[in-house]
Amino acid sequence: MSRKILLLSPFPPRRDAMHGGSRAVAGCLAELAATNRIRVLCLRGAGEPPTEPALAELCEAVEEIHRPGAAIGWQRACLWAFSLASGLPAWVGNWRVEPFRQAVRATVLQWRPDIVQFDYHVMAQYRDAVNTSRTVLVVYEPGTAAARDRLRFGPWWQQGLLRREAEAWGRYERKMLPAFDAIACFTGRDRAELQAIAPVAFVAVIPPAFGSGAKAASTGASASPRPIILFQGNFVHPPNVDAALRLARDIFPAVQASHPTAILQIVGVGPPRVLRALASSAIRVTGRVASMQPWLDTATVVALPLRTGGGIRIKTMETLCAGKALVATPLAAEGLDLHPGREFIPATTDREFADAISSLLDDPGRRSALELNARSWGKSFCRAGRVQAAFESLYARL
Prior knowledge:
It contains 15 helices and 13 strands. It has helices spanning 20-32, 53-56, 73-85, 90-94, 98-111, 143-153, 159-176, 188-197, 238-258, 273-276, 293-298, 314-321, 350-362, 364-381, 386-397; strands at residues 4-9, 37-45, 61-67, 115-119, 134-138, 182-185, 203-205, 228-232, 263-267, 283-285, 301-304, 326-328, 345-346. It is globular. The chain starts with a strand and ends with a helix.
């Protein structure tokens, strides 16, 4: 059954984006467009690349509404304080754009979609612009749980603001979640979090799309003259900053003790000053790169020592689909039906991470076995139609 679906996104969807969420939105859009009529309304910040042209061709229309540039430095602090004073989470306040609300309302009235799908909880604030269609909210990471993690691991001097931010997310999600006909999330733990906030909401677990799978790493790419440990992430996201700092400060020195020529590469958008300050001849902090593929190609081991955050880590999916040896916390592997020791090596403590990485550097045969299993998993997970079928089932329920 073909439906008219209006998809609302906080940023332009692209399968080649550095932001994992943008890639996930793009993957879902590509699958849904195979059998449905799609229109996209998204926000686009200054300097942000537009919607991927190949995706736009799959849609009946794509409209991008300008979003004022993200605040930085003291402006960011002022925005945070202003949003909290208004009772809103800072992210919600920064993505509040009245022309976008007007565009949603006009499109719904003129096009009359069967389903309006809101990607990301931050877009739930536009629910009041839709009153004639069924609504689905896709939660990539529960905001209340994420804010609770930031409060737990944040610096002492931010505790007051972080506590107010957590309270604001709680109020926002308690108000917005029950307003939707259905909610989709990525893991069972996220569903439990959401249902605790909104017990009456129907919540489905649908792991995200990831295109047709990343290109496998180049043959022999792991045989670098110097062993390379890779961490990738968008460092606007606090859990990535925490994990990268942990890897550079607490884990990598122990790896260096047994592998003096090892290199740590920290790749991704927006590394903060505290992370850039760790750069040295052995630690490379790149900032934004054009594509992750060359960095994955040359990595010997990918390490993901994540200890906070919800949802599913797109970086984990990308690593496995590229056929790379992975050491990760159970949190980083959550929701992907992975088998510890087969597709990845689990580690929790700093010592476990250092030992696991070192053992893989010493054992090419074990690395090769992990790489083969990772590629096999990727082919199954990225099979065409998986996400489409799950969302079609959810829509039919409505």
